[in-house]
Amino acid sequence: MSQLGFGNSFGFIGKDYALVASDCSVPRSIVTMKSYDDKIQKVSSRTLFALTGDVGDRKNFAEFITRNLKWYQFRNGRSLDNEGIANMTRNTLAQSLRRNPYLTFVIQAGFDLDTNEPSLYWFDYFGSMARPNATAQGLCSYFLLSLFDRHWKKGMDLNDGLELVKLCIDQLQKRYVIKTSAFIIKIVDKDGVRQIDLTKNISLDRKDVDPDAKKTVTGIPEAMKDSQNQPK
Fold it and tell me: What is the pTM of this model?
C-alpha cells in the first residue's frame, strides 16, 4: 500500500496549547489533483483532527465523528472531553475495520478546560491509538520524528512551537523528494481553535488582525495567488 498519496501531517503539545500542521496538496499517482485542501478539521469546540489517507475516507470520517459528537451532546446534555473523543475515534476505526474500513490516519489535538491541559492522540486505520507529546503521519514521519526527539521540549511556549514548525517545514522542503509547497497550521487552546499565519506569527480570527495579512498558508506559489485573485 503506497503512502505517497496519503499526505503529511504532524503535531505536538506545548505549554498551554496543542498544534497541528498539514500539507495542502492532494496527489494521485504522479498527478497533483488539487493544490489547496484543508486536511485539518474542527470536530468540536476545542478538538482538531489532522487527517491523512484516502480523500473520501478522511472527509467522511471527520464528518461522521463530528455528527456523532453533536448527537451525544444532544442526547446526554454534556460534551465529551478529549479522552472520550479519542476513545470514540479509536472504537469507530476498529469496528469499521471488520466491515467497511476507513483508510485514514488521524492526529487529534485538543484542550480540556476541566484540566486546563492540552492533549495529543495518534491513530492509524487499524484502530491503534497512542498519546505522544509529538508525532507525525505520512512519509514525513521519516524526517520529523528525529527532529522532535532533538528539538521538542516540555512546556514550549507558542513562539518556540512556531519556530519548531518552521524547522520541520524547512527540513521537508530540503530533504523530502516530493515537493511540499504549502502547509496549514492550526492551534487549539483555552480560547478555542484558530489558524496561524506562520509568516507573521498571528492568528487570523482575532479582531486585531492585520487586514493585509497573507493567507494562513506558507509557501503558496505567487502564480497560484495571482490566479486565485483573478475575477471569474
Answer: 0.81
